[in-house]
Amino acid sequence: MTAQDFQAEKAIVRAHNTAIDAAGVEDVAGAMAVRVAPSYHWRGMHPFDALEGSDAVATKFWGPLKRAMGPLQRRPDIFMAGQNWVDDFATTWVVEMGHLMGLWETPWLGLGPSNRIAFLRYVEFHRVEDGRIAETATYLDVLGLLNQAGYQPLPPQTGASILSPGPRTHDGLLTDVHDPAEGRATLDLINAMVSDLVGGGVESPGDHMAKFWTSDMCWFGPAGIGASAFYRGYQRGHSQPFEEGLEYVRHNGHQCRIGEGNFGGFFGYPSLTVKNSGGYMGLPASDREADMRIVDLYRREGNKLTENWIFIDILHFLKMQGLDVLARLREYPRL
Question: In Gene Ontology terms, what is a biological process of this protein (predicted)?
Fold first, then answer.
């Protein structure tokens, strides 16, 4: 791992996002083409999935979203960069997490709008190479947006339904140069925690929590699962239902894992394969294998993790079990 300040890569991503935000519905492809590679690869969540090239991403994702909710305000809470541990630090990635805010006034995904202010939670991982963005992974909390419009397609969640906050310390926008030793300390802690978690079948017993997490830790999960705080709240709101409801099949690894300053994280596309053998999320049990596309971002405090932001492609996870949530909502819309 070589010392690198990531300022050039961060500048490219910030300019890219600024151009997308300023572009009209018909101009997004051109705005994207300025800074993405000709062979640009985009990983999205259901129903977008993987797309190739800026034209496809603009046509299928950004254009329809802007048409429904634009103009969009980008409200980032975390911005960081680092070299990728997964490929032995050969590639550089820039990560941004926050909310896209708009006024949802026309249909999106075939579903009627709320006609109110709406927040779409997002995180993006961008691989920057030779002055261009070569690939992007975009994770969204689509269910959270639908909940704001009155759609409630799933049983009650075990965690709280909230507008996920940024870091408690309000220092997540790492636009300046940071001590690489701090980023490596964060990455080493994340690696140790993940190794321990996977080694235990992705369960979080008390000794795991005490070793890697502060007692006042916060876990900001996606809609359908919800948010939890502190050991007892995390156990009640997430880890216990997760462990009792799902049968662990395998960990598929990650495409990117980085750390900068006190922040770090990863994405897997997919990360886990499980079976919903115990009726997870209040849904009927199933013996089908289903994938979880997951993002985890973390804030480190000293030698422990203290905040965790999670994105899971729940719509994809459920569709693999035979439940197409979006299709059902289009067939049986809100009353």
Answer: polyketide metabolic process
- What's the one-letter identity of residue 284? P
Going from N- to C-terminal start, the domains of the chain cover 7-148, 180-331
pLDDT at 200: 85
In whole angstroms, give the CA distance from residue 137 to residue 123: 8
Q: How far from 278 is each of 30, 265, 284, CA to CA, in Å?
A: 48, 29, 8
Strands 132-140 and 36-43: parallel
- CATH class as words, domain 180-331: alpha beta
Which positions ≥6 away from 233 have C-beta within 8 Å? none
What is the residue-averaged pLDDT of the chain? 96
Q: Which amino acid is it at 98?
A: G
For the segment 31-39, the average pLDDT, to the nearest whole number, is 98
**Assigned CATH topology for domain 7-148:** Nuclear Transport Factor 2; Chain: A, (3.10.450)
Of 264, 318, 267, 320, nearest to 42 (Cα)? 267
287-302 confidence digits (pLDDT tens):
999 999 999 999 999 9
CA torsion 277-278-281-284 (nearest 10°) is 70
- The answer to whether the beta carbons of residues 104 and 55 sit under 8 Å apart is no
- Could you give the 3-state DSSP secondary structure of residue 89? coil
Query: Is residue 148's pLDDT more than 60?
Result: yes
pLDDT at position 333, please? 73
Say if CB 19 and CB 35 are below 8 A apart.
yes
- At 334 the pLDDT is 66
